[in-house]
Amino acid sequence: MDVHLQQRALPVRRGTARLTPRGRRGHPVLPGGLGRSTFAVGADSPVVVRGEGPRVWDADGNELIDLNANFTTLVHGHAHPLIVRAAQRATADGASFGMPSRPEMLHAEVLLDRLPDYDQVRYSNSGSEAVATALRVARAATGRDKAIFVRRAYHGTSDHALATGGEGARRGVSRAVLDETLVLALNDIDALVRAVAEHDGKIAAIVLDRLPNRAGLLPLRVDYARRARELCDRHGIVLVGDEVVTFRLAHGGIAGEDGVRPDLLTLGKLIGGGHPVGAVVGGADLMAEFDPRRGGALEHGGTFNGNPVSMEAGRVALDLLDPVAIERLDGLGDRARARLAAEAGDAWEVRGRGSLLRLFPVAGDAAAWQLDLWWAAYARGVLLMQTALAALPTVLSDGDLERCVDAIAEAAREVAARRAADGDGSG
Ligand SMILES: Cc1ncc(COP(=O)(O)O)c(C=O)c1O
Questions:
Q1: How far is the CA of 121 from the centre of ligand 1 (A)?
Q2: What is the position in ligand 1's atom list of the atom closest to the CA of 71?
Q3: pTM attached to this predicted model
């Protein structure tokens, strides 16, 4: 065998010895032991070692049904054979290149087939990059700086996107960015009209997610979305629809529902089939901002933009998420929400749409209740998001769904009883 292809033992790393028994806790070579602030669940966060289909296994050997799905990304579960094969083939043919490659073009064709109102797409490596890039297009096209967001709606980790969060999220964001970011309450039409009037001629973009999770997983009202569209038309503002999460809910996403067509869409997560991806989609007019043949085009690169592995895996993921798959997920979601509403107890409210659902305490410290629920569901073999959001994958069997609902309902009742005993919320 070619010496370069021989398997060699990996060098033992200095830090390995410092892993806690069975690797159960985070590693001290990572700040806080973790790689993302969204992983934080308290001091003793379990570590995952493997995923297959709708399941993951942790370092203690626990098996869980994964409704976290890497924060809604893995709409077909882990290691779907067709997606794995596509990624393997793409890797074998060269994982990334310094020139255009066909997988990017094929992915764009498949994506735009689902979005007939749009002409072109520019890829990046995350939803955060996609939102930041869409904002830059809006600023370049309008010659203005300000952008309107919904309070607490999450749009990633760019400075502008973090400005929508609370004090903690805004730490480290420059005063200049905070000043250009107008953050308004969800569905407050009067506030939107006032902000546009007050900052007339200075607003480049309104950024909307039709079902913003961190803002409470409550839908943007149709009249709000339509008014935003009207204001954009009247005042020359670019409407950006963030579909990084919601694209899983309908074949062409939900940003354009009710006759509201955003000028730009931002995508990510599922469209990479579990590999890093982000995308800005738009009409030819705005997307011309990226065209390097045009004078004054935007500078936009990215070493891994449109890399063949994400593109090929993502194309298969998109193909598999056809209307039939989405309809089945809608049915599973409706069943889960109905059962949880009936069985989780009066202390909880169940919200969501399609394959997304989330539990909220009717009173008390929501984040604390939801984190407790994360642990209580974990103990019963179900992995939620730390905000108690669940994303159902297409590979979930009907039996698995019922098991998940049993576990979450029982966990919810346990948390409510404990919190009531501690005097937090209505219990
Ligand atoms: C609505 C929305 N937009 C943007 C992002 C950022 O995507 P990424 O984490 O890929 O940067 C997220 C991430 O969860 C999101 O939920």
A1: 18
A2: 14
A3: 0.94
